[in-house]
Amino acid sequence: MLDTKTYKNVLLAVDNGIATLTINRPKSLNALNSDTLTEIGQALDEVKANEESIKVLVITGAGEKSFVAGADISQMHNMNSLEAAKLSKLAHTSFRKIEDLSQLTIAAVNGYALGGGLELAASCDIRVASNKAKFGQPEVTLGIIPGFGGTQRLTRLVGRGKAKEMIATGKMIDAEEAARVGLIEEITEPQNLMTKVKEIANQVMKNGLIAVGMAKYVIDRAADLPLDTAIDFETQLWSETFSTKDQTEGMTAFLEKRKPTFKGQ
Ligand code: CAA
């Protein structure tokens, strides 16, 4: 069973079924260089390999100021197109691993979520933010476009108009506006952020986790399919839940007027 694992630029800790992956380069406001992106991928492999003990994954940034202030500009400024493509693919590979986890993932946005940082948060299932957090895709202010999924995942979350506004102006929005446009689900006082995140995680962990994983899977995988195909896909996964012990337990517990004890089987 995994408890804590230390990398150079990220920390992975597990406590009572909740893994917390902390991007840990506070001196650079947790900017993502290639080593950090590689380590994020390695940590996610650990989370995937430990499904038995890890039920929910939380991603956050070290320090009080920043979640992640983007890709590392000092690493990028001399890159050529081939090196840029390599960095973008590395980020895509790591961020896709977040979406491919069966466990629910929550971004705990403790400060700046800019560029690659917002792209990282957008790869999680749920975003909870401090009321001090700021969100933006400032790439055009550097003469580039978002390259870690921002043109796609941000657009899917907030719609084309808002995504184009954010990307074309490069302006930051505050947590209130982020909640209003559907970019984040909850806002908290900074000191309550992790408590709120854990509250959500604990609520999720009381449920049938095979069902949680399947719901996440069908929501993501069917999002871009035609409705008829998508609802067929839902029917298929819905019917599969009836072959789990969790379904028997959940419905039996309801009929017996008691709380269910799910085993994830
Ligand atoms: N890359 C590298 N270093 C960064 C960084 C980044 N993205 N963001 C901040 N830092 C570093 C700063 O250079 C500074 O380092 P030094 O102390 O060595 O000078 C340190 O972090 C603290 O930053 P500031 O002094 O700038 O702090 P501030 O409070 O004055 O400003 C900020 C905070 C508004 C977030 C500002 O740091 C900023 O604008 N950062 C860049 C944000 C950005 O443009 N992100 C997008 C990057 S491009 C991208 O992500 C492409 C993509 O699609 C993947």
TrEMBL record:
Keywords: Isomerase, Lyase. Coiled coil: none annotated. Gene3D superfamilies: 2-enoyl-CoA Hydratase, Chain A, domain 1 (3.90.226.10), Lyase 2-enoyl-coa Hydratase, Chain A, domain 2 (1.10.12.10). SUPFAM superfamilies: ClpP/crotonase (SSF52096). GO terms for molecular function: hydro-lyase activity; isomerase activity. GO terms for biological process: fatty acid beta-oxidation. Belongs to the enoyl-CoA hydratase/isomerase family. PANTHER family: ENOYL-COA HYDRATASE, MITOCHONDRIAL, ENOYL-COA HYDRATASE-RELATED. This is Enoyl-CoA hydratase isomerase.
